[in-house]
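=== RUN LOG ===
request id: a7f3
mode: sequence -> structure
chains: 1
length: 252
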Amino acid sequence: MTKEFYNKVARKFGGYAYGLSNPKYTKEFTDGIPEDDFKNHLLSLPGKDKKVLDVGCGDCKFAFGISENFKEIVAIDNSTELLKVARSKQKELKNKNVKILRLDADRMKFENESFDIAFSRRGPTPYKEIYRILKPNGHYVIIEIGEKDTMDLKKVFARGQGYGNWDNPVSEKEKHSAINAGFITNFVKEYFYNEYYESYEDLDLFLQGVPIFPDFDPEKDKRFLQKYIEKFKTKKGIKLPRHRVVFVFQKT
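=== RESULT ===
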């Protein structure tokens, strides 16, 4: 996803959050919570003496939240606006073991074998570059958006992130890329779950802050959103099916 999109979101909402007007929704899980499993896998790696790379850190909220578990987290992103938010939050938190850098993930300037662990939360996955900068036996932990994420919504809009790639499994594509770079696969799991938005306004606000439709326009796309809500409104709220995949790869 382009840095222009994330710069726009950062300027509008002050990071990934939505300020005081957060969209109201609930989540319903059937086979585990992907974000929790991702975090648990990451924190299960012995870490007090480990140097860690956050690939596509955004506003660094996640990195700040786990940084006490590691010696240092180097957090990189190419969005100037999100990094402004990250540095501002760092001052507020008085955090001292997250190092924030503006870098493109596929052109990092770190020396070979500089890091013990790398992770990416729905960010870039430059496997060959990550393999280069990891130490032997180092781990790369990833949570990625699955190919069927918000599929029905994208069909109504006739566009969107990964539109039409429903039959190209992200799990297989990412495993293939990782193995080609030299990694072995320690863990892969797919998660399907549902979100239920309370109102039209809540789903509209959500779509303004995420890259499902990078060109989402509340006015121009109103008819599509109304059509989707008419079809998927339930007693629990407006249903939005989600799809995530968690991976743990290891450098041999």
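=== NOTES ===
The mean pLDDT is 93.
The chain has one domain: 3-251.
=== END ===
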